[in-house]
Amino acid sequence: MGSDTAVDSSARPPPLRTAERWG
């Protein structure tokens, strides 16, 4: 969950969307 989130965060500017998507 940490690795994927870090990669997604770097690739995508909005980290909130990433958290909600995996949340």
End-to-end C-alpha gap: 10 Å
What is the helix/strand order? HH
- Can you tell me the residue ranges where pLDDT is under 50 for at least 5 consecutive residues? none
- The tally of strands reads 0
Residue-averaged pLDDT, rounded? Answer: 60
Shape: flat
Number of discrete helical segments = 2
Major β-sheet annotation: none
Strand content: under 5%
Helix content: over 70%
**Gyration radius, to the nearest Å?**
7 Å
Structural class assignment = mainly alpha
Brief account:
With 23 residues, the protein is mainly α.
Structure description:
There is one protein chain. The chain is mainly α. Helices cover 78% and strands 0% of the residues. The protein is built from two helices and no strands. The termini are close together. The mean pLDDT is 60.
How would you describe this structure in keywords?
single chain; 23 residues; mainly alpha; 2 helices
Task: Describe the SSE topology.
Blueprint (H helix, E strand, L loop, with lengths): L1 H10 L3 H8 L1
